[in-house]
Amino acid sequence: MQMNQIGGYEIIDLVGEGGQGAVYRAQDPSSGQTVAIKILSHSSSDGEFLDRFQREASIMATIRHPNVVEVYDHGEEDGKHYIVTEFVSDNLEETLKRRKTLPLARAASVATQIASALEVSHNAGITHRDIKPANVLINDSGDVKLTDFGIATAESLDSMTSENTTVGTPLYMSPEQIQGSPNIDGRSDLYSLGCLLYETVVGSAPFEGNSTYEIFHGHIKGTHEALTEHSEEAPELLDSIIALLLKKERDERYQSASDLIKDLMELKELIATGPSDVSRTRVMPKVLGTQKISTQNTPYSQGLPKWLIPLGGIIGLIVILIIGGVFFLSGSGNSNVGAAVGISNELSGDSDSNRTSENLPPSASKEISSGSQSKGISFQKPGQDILSAYAVDPMLAIETMTNLVQLDPKEGIHALFEMDQTNMDLTAEFLGNLAMENPDLLKTLLEHGADSDLGVTARILNNLLEVDLDLTLTFFRDNALSHPGSLALYEPLIVKTFQVDHRNAASFLNKVGIEYKSFNETFRYVLGNSLVNLISQDMETSIDLFLETSRSANPLWSDLIRFDGEKGINSGTLFLENHKTARPEITIERLEDIIREGDNGGSYLLTMAGEDPTETSLILTKIVEAQNVSPSEIANALRSGAYSTWNGVDYNAIEEILHQNPSFVSYIGKEIDPQIWMDMAMPWPGLGSYGEGIWSDIPLDHTPGDVASQVSFNELLVKTLDPSQVEDAVVSIQDITSDMKKKDDFTSILEKLSGEDRFVNSYFLMTADKFYENDISAV
């Protein structure tokens, strides 16, 4: 962002920038003073991030103290929100990078100044909640300036922990912050200060690890190494102060910054006396005797929320939630951002709190990013931490994911995607255990995952199919596809999953086919609609899947046609296309099985004939010639298909099949009920008005005047079937127009056509040109 001025301040240069905004060095024209200006980006100028930004300005403006960065101004100009603070040239994080540790006297001085800043903020009812080296600025005179109150809580402001969000930085977080306690107070800041003080002396934080899980486990269960193990010069008083600051139970720590300052002042005096006195002098902190010491062996077993309560003695994994604003300058090329501004280096995105979203799909990263900003939270490598925990204790990892999703489903998805990126097989194994222990959570992950990135979620589900097919099937049958709303949620995911690997999908369908009739209707409905949509969207994959499945999947393929009408899709196309382009013998084999099973075989043949009668005729010819299916089975299937209520097939479809090959008539003609023959090539009797070019039923017991008055006698054909000719399926068309001298002749004509020796249904076509020669009567 190129700028010359904002709020009347002249921009000198850009210090650093990132996705959330930028920090500039600027000058106040009225005083000539150099200032730092933090400007929020347009994309972040709403929601929780803006709340945090404004919170920081409000809180820092209320605290006036030499050890707190001073806020000069804040406001909005042209839609840009900004904060103006004093410009500070260095910070503790950069100092420790350069020299690793501080001299004891300097460490005590820094800690005392931070404690002084905390004393005034705590007295004002404000808890900082993110004490760490990056937020401790150091000016040219060496004075400490505490900054970044953006995630602080104030008694006069709405608490950001009202939703149990966990905020902070892992290396310096108190146990109660890790557990997501809604009642964080100043004693949490003192714990963080203890971690910082320890690092300034030892060169590393008291609890470090290769993952957030290991770090959090240290804060909750670990014991830090004594200072004397690292430095012979460290006085025992300093060791005792740190030990008191790092108590797991906050009731056992210093109860106020004022108490801590007293001991730090004594420590400074002790150090000033010289090394010979320091190393051998043991002085207990004055406040130690006034602290309430807990006698419980497991101080946090009662206070932890459910997601941190140990399982089998092992503390639950915690995944950190960090306020979205900590990545204000994520991606800045300047790693020295915080060293030259009155706003912490946290903004540069260079600290250990950076979240990892690289290697995730762009859509997932985008969704995760936007979701985090809107809620004001984000995570530090949660997926890797959950996998680390899973290797130790699967139940621990499951419980962690459960509570993570409860806090924010989008972050649960971020963790799942990261797990899959790290170790697909182990992730699938984890999900298998999740399906057994907490299937509702797996449902939530899949549903939110599909909404975030359908492709990645489909790949994850495919891996689960490959690792444990039976478990996945049970999960879908009993949980995911057990309620009416499943279709909209799971149909796209199932389609995409089957496209990932049709072999795994085929194994799944084979299993389904074996017990198909035992599955609930919702399961069959969702799966059937998913397959019909797959046929519509991706014929190539559909054919691969069709060929890969065994005959055990036939009940499923047979039932598929039920869902055609609802989707406006012809699933019979799958049989046609496979017969044309792939393995025609499989089409024949499957249709033979389906025809033997009942009604749906005829429905398939009829819908196929409606789409491609020539290809359907070839298929039926092969079925007839193979003689694996009896004539009665074919006839029954066709008859049932013609009268099916779900696919809207009319009688023309039978005729389209039968007139393609005369052998069909001789093969199944005697199995077809005469009523079917008579109904072919015409709508249901009685539809429409007489004389409009349709086949119409004229009852024999008519009243000549009434019937004749409705009939146009310009042209009149009669279509009849003689029972003696049923075996040969001979249907005759007779033009009786010339015999209709008068209306009364109609009665005598019908009587001639029908007699005791003939079983005849008569239908009349009122307009000759509506009749076509290729119908069944021409065979």
Please explain how this structure is put together:
This protein is α+β, with helices and mostly antiparallel strands. 48% of the residues lie in helices and 9% in strands. It has a 6-stranded antiparallel sheet, covered by helices on one side. A 4-stranded antiparallel sheet has the order 14-17-15-16. α15 runs antiparallel to α16. The longest helix is centred in the first third of the chain and has 20 residues, at 104-123. The N and C termini lie far apart (82 Å). The model is unreliable at 154-166, 276-284, 288-379, 645-650, 673-715 and 756-779 (pLDDT under 50).
Number of helices: 33
Whole-number tally of structural domains: 6
The structure class reads alpha+beta
What is the CATH superfamily of the largest domain?
A: Transferase(Phosphotransferase) domain 1
Number of E strands? 17
Largest sheet: 6 strands, antiparallel
- What is the subunit arrangement here? single chain
CA gyration radius, whole angstroms:
41 Å
- How much β-strand is present in the residues? 5-15%
- What CATH calls the topology of the largest domain is Transferase(Phosphotransferase), domain 1
Let me know the average pLDDT: 72
